[in-house]
Amino acid sequence: MGCGSALPTTRHCLSAQVINLREKLFLIDCGEGTQLQFRAMKLNFSRLNHIFISHLHGDHCFGLPGLISTLGLLGRTADLHIYAQPDAGKVFSFLPDYFCKELPYQVLFHSFDPAVSEQIFEDRTLKVTTIPLKHRVPSAGFLFEEKPKSAHIRRNMLDFYRIPFARINAIKEGEDFVTPEGEVIPNARLTLPPRPTQKYAYCSDTAYDESIVPLIEGVNLLYHEATFSHKDLARAQETYHSSAQQAALIARAARVERLLLGHFSARYPDEKILLDEAKEIFPNTLLAKERLRIALPA
Fold it and tell me: Most CB within 10 Å of its CB: which of 1, 16, 127, 244?
């Protein structure tokens, strides 16, 4: 929804992404213009219940007050959960009281310590863990992990052994089936393995930091900031950001499947310089762009 850095431009919006897992929407960061991108991408506001804020720099959170207001105007009644460092509640909690005095739903802030990796969300299908990042202010990335699914029943085996409907869930969870005659049918004959679970890691904003590698090992898709080209490494180090080359080094060390670069500095009129730089180290690299949709698995 936005892959620019601190300065908005006519080419890029500010940081925001949506995870769509079976039509449940999870928002990561909320830069200015996020609600407009929701409209442009034809996303359903009512499907959004959880927002994750990486850190309290304006390009990652100044869109939050407007979004909260819009959800109220749309008649939302379900609670909205926001996960962020402890100061976020103090910074944003007064806004609904001042600008949205009759907000028809509750905004609930859940704080986490950005200096440690901890699980901050879990439901039946997903869990979210923080990734401590190295930035000028307390900052954390997020690891989204799909939970393992049950095995798939072989329909022909279901019919052949006349398996009762009441036994299907147990077989999906790994149990064997015993026929009325006492024959044990191994679970492996009755089922197919489920589709592998998917993992997505979001790492922005951060200086180059190899300590995150074990936390993102083998993810299907890694979004890593690439604010600068390596020729501007001095500026990257000064501002606690990363170069495209450094993002690629992290992707290679973590053995991820794909790397997505983003959080581009406004100084580059064409991000191909960043893409080329990263691909020299990690060939399976993509550039983020507004309204880009990436399906997992690929």
Answer: 244
| pLDDT tens by residue, 72-99 | 999 999 999 999 999 998 888 777 677 7
To the query of whether residue 59 is one of the catalytic residues in this protein, the response is yes
Distance of alpha carbon 235 from the chain centroid: 27
> Which domains occur in the chain, in start order?
1-111 (3.60.15.10), 115-149+195-288 (3.60.15.10), 152-192 (no CATH)
What's the full length of the chain, in residues? 298
Nearest to 74 by CA among 66, 84, 82: 66
∠ CA(163), CA(168), CA(171), 5° rounding? 100
Cis peptide before 205 (omega within 30 of 0): yes
Angle between helices 272-279 and 244-254 (to 10 degrees): 40
* Active-site choice (29, 59, 87, 205): 59
Q: Name residues whose C-beta falls within 8 Å of residue 155's C-beta, 6 or more positions apart in sequence.
A: none
The token pair at 204 is 């922005």
Residue 103 three-state SS = coil
Residues 6+ positions from 204 with CB-CB distance below 8 Å: 15, 29, 54, 133, 141, 223, 224, 225, 262, 263
pLDDT digits (tens, 9 = 90+) for 28-40: 999 999 999 999 9
- How far apart, in whole angstroms, are the C-alpha atoms of residue 293 and residue 289? 9
